[in-house]
Design goal:
The chain is mainly α. It has 12 helices and 3 strands. A 3-stranded parallel β-sheet has the order 2-1-3, with helices on both faces. The longest helix has 26 residues. It is elongated and about 70 Å long.
Length: 257
């Protein structure tokens, strides 16, 4: 599913006197094939915001890029051009859309990322549910850990771990084999992916080492596993995990009744 990109360039606050905005228009339309590219002398004013709203309402664009002041300036004014729908009535449809990754499946440019983005969160959610069930069961004396390998909960958890591992590998390979994505990847991208990958690998290794009764090595690997889990949890609000909440709210707010 191709995006209908709208680029809106502000020429006010001496921006127009400092840079060649006409050249920016050529870059947006020629290089990035933006169907809509507008220059406005006062983009954060009512007329500039209304221009963006009008293009969104007419579906001339569905993705907006604003070239204006620093995000520290006029953020509230420009944010008014975004979605303004009611969140709660659209929350369930938005969750279905995101959890099924329907847009990734429809997008020809991002097809390679579909399975990685689908498998990783679902596997992680499954493991979190299993961990909660086993933890509560152990607390009330209903379950005794470690679970036998033939236990249905253990089988499901092992399957979920394999799903996450496959998802992480697909995401890493997609980033490594694409020179553009590799060059654009930041420390934060690699930290998140490699920490998640490390959590899964050390968790699987801990299980196999316990079964092999290699206690000394197993304890070390399990310690690293626990440390990586703590890192992942502390980093979660600042990582791509947070996108699940942000994106869900954005899609719900932007969904037409």
């Amino acid at each position: 599913m191709s995006k209908k990109l709208g680029v809106y360039i502000c020429g006010g606050c001496s921006i127009g006197a400092s840079i060649d905005t006409e050249k920016l228009v050529k870059v947006a339309t020629r290089d990035y094939k933006a169907p809509v590219c507008q220059i406005h002398p006062f983009l954060c004013g009512p007329e500039g915001v209304e221009m963006i709203r009008r293009d969104l309402a007419s579906q001339a664009v569905d993705t907006v890029v604003v070239a204006a002041c620093s995000p520290r300036m006029k953020t509230a004014a420009l944010r008014a051009s975004g979605a303004a729908g009611s969140v709660l009535p659209n929350l369930v449809p938005a969750l279905v859309l995101i959890l099924a990754h329907k847009r990734f499946g429809q997008c020809s440019r991002e097809k390679s990322r579909y399975w990685g983005h689908l498998l990783t969160p679902w596997g992680l959610a499954s493991l979190a549910i299993m961990g909660t069930v086993v933890g509560i069961g152990s607390m009330f004396g209903l379950l005794r850990t470690p679970l036998e390998m033939s236990n249905p909960l253990k089988i499901f958890a092992s399957f979920a771990a394999a799903v996450i591992l496959l998802g992480c590998l697909l995401l890493l390979l997609d980033r490594l084999r694409d020179p553009v994505k590799r060059a654009a990847s930041t420390y934060f991208d690699w930290l998140f992916l490699l920490t998640l990958f490390g959590v899964v690998v050390t968790g699987i290794l801990s299980q196999f080492l316990r079964l092999a009764q290699v206690a000394a090595v197993m304890c070390t690997v399990y310690f690293v596993h626990l440390v990586l889990i703590v890192v992942l949890l502390l980093y979660a609000p600042y990582s791509r995990f947070a996108h699940l909440a942000y994106r869900t709210l954005a899609v719900a707010a932007g969904r037409k009744p």
